[in-house]
Amino acid sequence: DASHQNIRREKSGFLPQASITAGAGYEHTDSLATRALGLENQQFFATNATVEVRQNLFSGFSRFAGTASAKALKRASENTLAAVRQNVILEGVTAYLNVLRNRELVRLNAGNERAIREQLELEDERVTRGSGISVDVLLAKSRLQIAKEQSIAFEGALKDSISTYIQVFGHPPTLESMVPMQVPPSMLPESKEAAAEKLQAENPVIKIASAQADSAMHEIDRAQSTYYPSVDVVGSANIENNFAGVEDVRHDYAVKLELTWQLFDGFLTPANSAEANARYKEAIQSGRDVSRKTTELMELSWHEMEVAKERAELLRNAMNIAGEVFQSRIELREAGKETAINVLDAENELFSACINFVNAFFDSQVAAFRVLNTLGRLDTRAVAQSTPVDNSAVVAQCGFTPSEGGGYQPAQ
């Protein structure tokens, strides 16, 4: 890639440079030397060729600084690729889980809507026979409208999540074959403090900032290299024929040590050094900002994961209580001691508790994957090691089972 070729370019300064120069053409010479020899207006067909090999021995540490800077930039490039790859994986996992979330919510609310509609029909028949209460029918109709509105909202959210899924994966999801997945506890640090410690060493964004600071530091040495002389070993061979007014062939061979030291460059070196120092300080400060922001993102994700898990546990208890209330209402109704609308309300509360639980469950899983992302651990291996959950097992924790109409209903 580009960063690897950049290293090759910087290392080229360690290798010798070879060049060939050749020329041929007519020369007309009229000089003091030719006139002293009585040769005026000499004209020859002249040819010349020079081969030179130059090996730099010292350049003020510029080559070493350039190579070190290029290697640091290569590390930054590798971590940039890792960060992009992990962000894409997080985007894919989030899209996948959101499709599952909305699929379950649509099915749950479909079950709730069906239960309300059935109860409405029963109450309507009771009123027709003269044994029902018309107010109960109106209340059931009101609850049915609310359930329909929720169905529209959940179906719209499902369509949106499917659109996002298609954008990420390039094809629509197969809803029936998708199963939830959970992050194994072993993949997560034991505490937020332990995660913060690992963050500095594992997060690719922090590694990018560190590598860029290293590169900027080496650029200071490169900028200051022109304070020193440049030392080269030069070997050359030259052959001339009728060149510069001198008839016949001439051969020159030389091996010499050349030292070039620029004593004044118009304050260019101090300016370059000051610029490199400023860029290094900027990179250091940028690295600190990146570290703080990444730590904040990790802590927010960790808090979101903890809150979602606690909410899921509380909502699981709420579902158990709502389930007991619902069963009690049914028994009282069968004994003639409870109204149908109260039974319907109890069932509606059970559906609502399960909907909230499903949201909390998927929130906790998305947050867990986001924590892995901030730690730099969300790669394809992490996804492969995620624990799959049996289809509809999340909703099964609510005490619900699939119904014939494609939704869910309370287990009998």
TrEMBL record:
Its main location: membrane. One of its GO terms (molecular function) is efflux transmembrane transporter activity. It holds the Pfam family OEP. GO terms for cellular component: cell outer membrane; efflux pump complex. InterPro entries: OMP_efflux (IPR003423), TolC-like (IPR051906). Keywords: Cell outer membrane, Membrane, Transmembrane, Transmembrane beta strand, Transport. It is found in: Cell outer membrane. Belongs to the outer membrane factor (OMF) (TC 1.B.17) family. This is Channel protein TolC. It comes from Minwuia thermotolerans.
